[in-house]
Amino acid sequence: MSLPLPSPAILLHIGFAVSALLLGPFALTARKGSRWHRGGGYAWVTLMLGAALTSVFIRDYRLPNIAGYTPIHLVTLATFAGLGWGIWSIAHHRVQSHRRAMWATYISGCLVAGAFALLPQRYLGRLVWQQWLGLM
C-alpha cells in the first residue's frame, strides 16, 4: 500500500530535521571558539528553528491531541526554550550553561523526537519501515 504524499510542511520539516541531526554532532564537538564551531552552531540553530517552526504546521488528529497538537509537539516548546537558553547563556559568557543547553536540545529535539517520529504507527515510521524498507 502506498502512503499519500506528505504535505509541504512535512517535507520542509524533514529537510530541516535531518540536516540538524547530521550537522549537530559536528557543531557540538568542534573545538570551542573555532570558526567551525561558531559557523556550524549558527547553521545548526537555524536548522533547529526551521524544524521547530515547521512542526507547528504539522497536526495529527488521530492520536491524543489538543487542536491537532500531540505530545511530540512538547519537543517543539523544549527546542525553542533550549535554543533560547543556549543563546542567552553564551551571550552572557556562561559557557557550561550554553554547552548543556545545546546538548540537551540536540538530544531532545533530534534524537528523542526522531525516534518518536519513526515509531511504526506514525507517518514517517510507516514511510520508512513499510514503504521504503518493506519490513512491516
Produce the secondary structure layout.
Layout: H1 8-29, H2 35-55, H3 74-91, H4 95-117, H5 123-132
Helix pairs in contact: 1-2, 1-4, 2-3, 3-4
* Rg for CA atoms: 16 Å
Structural class: mainly alpha
| Amino- and carboxy-terminal Cα gap | 11 Å
Mean pLDDT over all positions: 95
Order of helices and strands: HHHHH
Task: Extract low-pLDDT stretches.
Answer: none
Strand fraction band? under 5%
Q: Supply the number of helical segments.
A: 5
Total domain count: 1
Largest sheet: number of strands, sense, barrel closure: none
Overall 3D shape:
elongated
Give the % helix. Answer: 55-70%
* Strand tally: 0
Considering the chains and any ligands shown, give keywords for the structure:
membrane, Membrane protein, elongated, 69% helix, mainly alpha, 0% strand, 136 residues, 5 helices, transmembrane helix, transmembrane, DUF2306_membrane
